[in-house]
Amino acid sequence: AYSTSKVFANGFYALQMPRVPVKIAAVCMILNIILNLLSMWTLGVLGLALATAIASWVNSAWLYIALERQLRLQENFAQDAEDHPLSVTILKTICACAAMAAYLYALKTVWPHSSAAAHVVLGILGGSLVFILAVRLLKMKEQSLILDLLGLRRK
What pLDDT tens digit does each residue of the chain (155 aa) get? Predict the structure, then answer.
């Protein structure tokens, strides 16, 4: 939840709306304090961890909903948002990451005694290739943006 909050907050920074994630984070920090006070007496340290996790997930969900709503309000995103909501992009990204994770797990399982350097090189190169192939198979629209930025897209 922490890393997704950072991603969604950066979306607001890109839209030049830095106050939105700050306000949401402030409310979630207050929620975290309240949940900590309520749970630390009954669950101890586990209650503190649980309260922090809950507040973090609330922060991520709230940022996601607010960013999705804001993108729908943007003129240049309005049509694309109806045809291709942010949730679809997130789901496809999770699937591509799962494919990469499966490759990395298989690499570790198949060659458990190979050198650390070999694992790093094969992990980076193979993992990147699997991720890129998954993105292509899932027909993610964002791949064309990346190819355009890198100047690799055929015109």
Answer: 678 888 899 989 989 999 999 999 999 999 999 999 999 888 888 889 999 999 999 999 999 999 988 887 775 655 554 556 777 888 888 899 999 999 999 988 888 888 888 889 999 999 999 998 998 899 887 777 777 777 766 65
